[in-house]
């Protein structure tokens, strides 16, 4: 059996710019390589710089109390889930202490 080769992939900033031009999105979400994993801050910065200021760029994965302050210097906001949950597991209920720490960190 042969494996099909996937062609070259466009950089995230180029994809974001193209999406804004062709699809008029309400925002751009930037994700890490998997759920719960942060994107590289430089990738987030490149995407933010590639799209107009009126298009929000949101951190989509990997938002944590330990890094949210830095990420919000680049992104306009975030989607947060598992880092607020008991033991950091998606399907657990929200842990009030984790949520409080996150909000405090986000406020700076």
Counting helices, strands and paired strands, the structural category is mainly alpha
Which strand order does the major sheet show?
1-2-3
Give the beta-strand count.
3
**Relative helix content:** 25-40%
**Radius of gyration based on Cα positions:** 16 Å
Low-confidence region ranges: none
Query: Given the structure, what is the number of helices?
Result: 4
Strand content: 5-15%
3D shape: elongated
Mean pLDDT: 92
Main β-sheet description: 3 strands, parallel
Helix-strand sequence: HEHEHEH
Separation of the first and last Cα atoms: 54 Å
Features of this protein?
108 residues, mainly alpha, 3-stranded parallel beta sheet, 4 helices, 3 strands, 35% helix
Quick recap:
The protein is 35% helix and 7% strand. By secondary structure, the protein is mainly alpha-helical.
Question: How would you characterize this protein structure?
Answer:
By secondary structure, the protein is mainly alpha-helical. The chain contains four helices and three strands; from the N terminus they run αβαβαβα. The protein has a three-stranded parallel sheet with strand order 1-2-3. Helix 2 links the parallel strand 1 and strand 2. Helix 1 runs parallel beside helix 2. The longest helix is centred in the first third of the chain and has 12 residues. The radius of gyration is 16 Å and the shape is elongated. The mean pLDDT is 92.
